[in-house]
Amino acid sequence: MGYPDQRFDVNLSILFTELPLLERPAAAVAAGFTAVELWWPWIETPTPPQAELDALKKALDDAGTQLVGLNVYAGQLPGPDRGALSVPGTESDRFRANIDVAADFAASVG
Length: 110
Prior knowledge:
Blueprint: E1 10-11, H1 24-30, E2 35-38, H2 50-63, E3 66-70, H3 91-108
Parallel strand pairs: 1-2, 2-3
Helix pairs in contact: 1-2
């Protein structure tokens, strides 16, 4: 019994981590996926340089993948932050700084 109408995506923040971020969309396609998702890939900043956003968009486009999920900035999850909204005093500034960037990037990739 199969699930012919069920579709899957791959989380590029969890899988293919042996590769640099910009090579992961192509690896996903090579593994049979066209839909991908990401945690916020810039753990050090809620507002990465536009050139880095453009490079990720290009990697997604060049591979032929569709970004179907993108988390907002969460800080250094493996480190001290455990989520940008959990650090008293700076949480709202970092979160607010990220919302427009994340929404604009999501819109740019459809």
